[in-house]
Specification:
globular, mainly alpha, two-stranded antiparallel sheet
Length: 62
Amino acid sequence: MTKKTLTQYGISYSEKNVENDAEALAFLKDKGYQSVPVVFSGDREPVHGFRPDLLAKLNQAM
């Protein structure tokens, strides 16, 4: 749903699949995350989980 919402807003993104990318998994664990999705955008606070309200704010900021 997060990818669908980002696409609807026209926000481009790159996806890291933690099942296939050990480095991406280690990065998220190092940051304290235990589940996905996590959306990083510049210096903004990451969006963790499916949060349409925060994705809408991210869209407004762009």
